[in-house]
Amino acid sequence: MMKVSRFWIGAAVLTMVVFASAALASGHGDARPMKKGILLVAFGSSEASAQVSFANIDKRVKEAYPGIPVRWAYTSYIIREKLAKQGQLLDSPEVALAKMQDEKFTHVAVQSLHTIGGAEYHDLRRTVGAFKMMGGFERVILGYPLMSTQEDMQRIVAAIIKTIPKERQKDEAVVLMGHGTHHPSNAFYAALMFQLQLKDPNIFVGTVEGYPDVGLIQELMLKKEIKKAYLMPFMSVAGDHAKNDMAGAEDDSWMSILTKAGIECVPVLKGTAEYDEFVDIWVSHIDGPLSHF
Ligand code: CO
User: Fold this and answer.
1) DSSP state, residue 170
2) What is the CATH number of the domain that holds 194?
């Protein structure tokens, strides 16, 4: 008698354990209530002026997708370190996604705020892929950077033409300064210049670290006997590159090089993310991931 009841008690306990663990397992997976989130990922900038750009993106995203929490991460370790020393803590994409997992988000749209699909974007792809494999979210999808599809290219051409200073005359040049990279995606800059020049032959696109460089842009402008040029950063923020490499007083800044070549230069210190024309392209890229949720 004693033996039988022990057996049944044991069986009942075992059954409870099995059901409880099954309930826990389903609670961890399908049974979680849907919680959507957006993670915006920028390269980052330690320049105070860049905050204008990021604040504008944040505002536009929240207007476009009301009710969906928006989080931020910076891909640049150097920038995050620099900001941390000033007491400003920003997450890497990895940490931001882990925190969102902790907060029980189920569906996350990660939006790259990079300009092209270069090295930083592809690092982010790997991070998002790792979170996909771990299965902590039901869906985690990465949106394209600014300049990705042919449609983006046409929208960018229109945005550039619209944001050129009004006082610029047609025989004066506009020189855009892209970042440039060793990554194969660097080809986008020359492709953009080709498509811009179909609309306005005096718009040029150069890069700080890739092709075309400022020497080639100078050569093209001198061939056209251009006397004056508006210099504009083709980067989301008017940070260090815009202030120093583009408009700085040093001998190797674009301003100094082109002025020495006889071209009067007017620098415009405003990043693309300060104009809604560009921000709306990034924002529209969040539609892709969100349409799968
Ligand atoms: Co740089």
Assistant:
1) T
2) 3.40.50.1400
